[in-house]
Write a structure and sequence with these properties.
heterodimer, A: about 240 residues, alpha+beta, Ubiquitin-like (UB roll), Alpha-Beta Plaits, 2 domains, five-stranded mixed β-sheet, two-stranded antiparallel sheet, 7 helices, about 25% helix, about 15% strand, B: about 575 residues, alpha/beta, 5 domains, 24 helices, about 40% helix, globular
């Protein structure tokens, strides 16, 4: 089955891409940078952060480059005024809700799009208490941007463990276990894949966190001891 | 009934079912026990083979589900715009005071839980409430007072009358739903089955120029043609009865008033697209319409008008009634499919579109209640007759829901082409007081000033002035109305109803309401902030909720810029 090529214009340049290529694929082929936050090669794309939106033929709405397929003879603008306004506003709004101190890629985007850190004064930062409930990793959801990657790799995208879900909805959404039980009570097998795909400091290995806290060797050993599930008897919950 | 055997009996009915049964199971468990406990979730997880975390996520998504103990009686008072004008805040406040609790709390004796609620679709009987008593069917309460809410609940209200030219409404003022004896024996369906091929039915609907009444205005015949032509093992007709847009209650009236008209419309759609399976997804806040439809389905099945071998033919149709659980987003068609499939109601990315990849991944024709109700008359009287009503771009009769400061709020059937002014003055009893503005099209609509109301009520005329028919809601506000307060309520509505999937809407509805809440003392640059938020939501969100969540606010900035200025003048 030969790839029938699709011809399009991307930022003024003619381009031919294989059928089925996304706009993000086309941009990469053309050496054009389109920012992404939720997109990750290892997870099913959900097109939800919308930071990758581009203008296709001046349409009524912008298209997410990570999932939108290239259309023949279309004209894609990856960084016109509409696109920049959307990206800048999304970043400014995100920064007002989430602690992005340990998200260097997103901070770079903020610089790139001249996003104003103080654009939304008196906004509600999403407040969460840091969760330290197992010897392997900590969860600091104040740094969570809700990219869904951890939930996805815990489920059908990799591990089929289903320890995680999304709780509540809208701006109050957070990643959680069933009824907020601890990770050790949950089906979590501590595979670590969620930490691997987290784009911020929301999920962090305990050792790394301990080093940041200035733990000494003894303390580190104590707090990261692998004491989990040696006893296979299921806990009763609280 | 809080025993283990109680749960067992209840769950046994769902043996062999899968995830699609999740919302019905959760409704049954909550109905019996008041809330859904971790132990219930554990049992349901094994029964339906759904991870416990997923079930917990689903419960938290739908506001009518509770995973923490509730009172034996739950009272939800609507505080959206029309009910607010009718004093809902006062009712809620006094109710809480009398019970010694705050909003969203339960009395110490476990008798009452009180919550505020988004629009309950009873704007013609504002203020309204939705009440639940453990073990009993929910009840929608019109014109509520504190003493009424704390006493015995009465859910009676009347239905609007059409006039002799009415197609969708009928001509008698009734307090009881239409029965088969009133309605007749599905004459149009009989004609279709006996004399027409499915293609001929589709051709009639296409020729009639019927366009969808849910808000998106897509041609109905084309949707059916796509669905019929799509490859798939099985197909579905889904009736979108998740009407939840503030100020919109036309579909409730149709379902409560003319259930058989809707069922016949669904049957015609199923015959046309070629399926024996249809589902009505009705919002959880419509208990009366749900009960009436369930009875009408039984009645029609008993008369061989639905079910197997309809009217002795080889056409069969099973119509299933599914109850939503408190999520405006599920009116978005793909989020609605997710809800039926037992998931959080997140909208899917499109394409693929429902006509090829809909419910359970199968080709699906999803239509609004009012759209389906228009079909029997098209088959009965012909496409030309239907096109003779209204204008070229707005064929056929159209329902509107009118609320707020008018003499007679309610649902009216109009012939598109009448001006908004004539409609307000001559049809619904005139504006009470001096008109300040009309919010046209619902919470996602636009504001019209007194100078604008000579616009003709048609899809094309409203579009031409940058407005919309939307869901057919017309909310009328006189000079006594505090528009800042109305905007706050619209902002709260969208913040509460955003699903949280895409960043623009999840963050934008929050940032928007934060600014609207301080409109009494706005900060420099707030109007520009709201415009950036609104345009970003409109252009970059995934679905229609996000696309429209900033429309009313941006419209207010255009029409009432003074509301957003610092040191703005005093207001009421």
């Amino acid at each position: 089955m030969a790839d029938s090529a699709i011809k399009l214009r991307l930022d003024g340049n003619e381009l031919a891409v294989p059928k089925g290529a996304t706009i993000l694929d086309a941009a990469q082929q053309a050496g054009v940078d389109i920012p992404v936050i939720c997109y990750h090669e290892a997870t099913s794309p959900n097109g939800l952060c919308r930071i990758c939106v581009v203008d296709v033929d001046g349409g009524r709405v912008l298209q997410p480059a990570c999932v939108a397929e290239c259309q023949a003879d279309s004209n894609v603008e990856t960084r016109n005024e509409r696109v920049q306004r959307s990206r800048r506003t999304i970043l400014e709004m995100l920064n007002a809700s989430v602690n992005l101190d340990e998200a260097p890629e997103i901070q770079e985007m903020m610089d790139d799009y001249a996003a104003d850190e103080a654009r939304f004064p008196d906004a509600n930062l999403r407040e969460h208490t840091l969760i330290d409930d197992n010897p392997f990793y900590i969860r600091d959801y104040e740094q969570c941007v809700l990219c869904w990657r951890c939930v996805q790799v815990c489920a059908e995208d990799a591990q089929f463990t289903f320890a995680l879900t999304l709780k509540n909805r809208g701006h109050e959404t957070s990643v959680a276990t069933a009824f907020d039980i601890s990770m050790t009570e949950s089906p979590c097998v501590f595979c670590g894949q969620c930490i691997g795909v987290c784009p911020t400091g929301a999920l962090k290995p305990k050792v790394q966190w301990g080093l940041e806290q200035g733990w000494g060797a003894d303390e580190m050993r104590q707090k990261t001891r692998r004491g989990r599930k040696r006893n296979p008897e299921k806990t009763d919950g609280e | 009934m809080t025993t283990q055997s109680g749960v067992d009996t209840l769950l046994a009915m769902y043996e062999g079912r899968g995830r699609e049964a999740l919302l019905p199971v959760l409704w049954d468990v909550q109905g019996a026990f008041g809330s859904i406990s971790p132990e219930h979730v554990h049992r349901i997880s094994h029964l339906l083979r759904v991870p416990e975390a997923d079930i917990f996520g689903v419960i938290g998504f739908y506001t009518l589900f509770h995973d923490e103990p509730t009172g034996r009686r739950i009272i939800r008072v609507c505080t959206d715009p029309t009910c607010a004008l009718a004093g809902a805040d006062g009712v809620l406040h006094e109710l809480c005071e009398r019970l010694g609790i705050h909003d969203n709390e339960t009395t110490k004796d476990g008798e009452y839980t009180v919550e505020h609620s988004p629009c309950l679709g009873l704007c013609d009987y504002a203020p309204a409430a939705l009440a639940s008593a453990r073990g009993k069917a929910d009840i929608a309460l019109p014109n509520v007072s504190v003493s009424g809410l704390l006493g015995e609940w009465h859910g009676e209200y009347f239905q609007p009358a059409g006039d002799s030219a009415s197609v969708l409404l009928n001509t008698a003022l009734v307090s009881a739903p239409e029965t088969l004896i009133d309605y007749g024996n599905y004459r149009s369906l009989r004609r279709a089955i006996q004399d027409m091929t499915p293609e001929e039915v589709i051709a009639q609907v296409e020729a009639s120029s019927l366009i969808g009444r849910g808000g998106a205005a897509f041609p109905t015949g084309l949707k059916w043609k796509f669905t019929r032509g799509a490859p798939g093992d099985c197909k579905y007709v889904v009736c979108n009865a998740d009407e939840s847009e503030p100020g919109t209650f036309k579909d409730r009236v149709l379902m409560e008033h003319r259930p058989h008209l809707l069922l016949e419309g669904i049957a015609l759609a199923a015959y046309a697209v070629g399926t024996d399976k249809a589902i009505i997804f009705i919002r959880g806040e419509y208990p009366r319409a749900t009960a009436i439809l369930a009875a009408a389905i039984r009645e029609a099945e008993a008369s061989s008008l639905l079910g197997d071998a309809i009217m002795g033919s080889d056409f069969a149709l099973d119509i299933e009634l599914r109850r939503g659980a408190g999520a405006y987003i599920c009116g978005e068609e793909t989020a609605l499919f997710e809800a039926i499939e037992g998931k959080r109601g997140f909208p899917r990315m499109k394409p693929p579109y429902p006509t090829t990849f809909g419910l359970f991944g199968q080709p699906t024709a999803v239509n609004n209640v009012e759209t389906l109700c228009a079909v029997p008359s098209i088959i009965d009287k012909g496409a030309d007759w239907f096109k003779g009503i209204g204008t070229e771009g707005s064929a056929g009769p159209k329902l509107v829901s009118v609320s707020g400061h008018v003499g007679q709020p309610g649902v009216y059937e109009i012939e598109p082409g009448i001006t908004l002014r004539a409609f307000l003055d001559d049809v619904c009893g005139g504006v009470i007081g001096e008109l300040q503005t009309v919010l046209m099209g619902g919470a996602a609509g636009t504001f019209l000033k007194p100078d604008d109301i000579d616009v003709r009520l048609t899809f094309e005329d409203l579009r031409a002035i940058g407005s919309t028919f939307g869901s057919g809601a017309i909310m009328v506000f006189n000079q006594t109305t505090d528009l800042r307060d109305m905007l706050k309520r619209l902002g709260r509505f969208f913040q509460h109803e955003s699903c949280g999937k895409c960043f623009p809407c999840q963050l934008g509805t929050q940032r928007q309401v934060e600014i609207l809440e301080r409109l009494d003392a706005p900060q420099a640059g707030d109007a520009e902030r709201l415009m950036d938020i609104g345009l970003t939501m409109t252009e970059a969100s995934i679905c229609g909720l996000g696309h429209t969540a900033g429309i009313a606010v941006m419209s207010a900035i255009e029409k009432f810029p003074e509301l957003f200025e610092q040191n703005g003048q005093e207001h009421g």
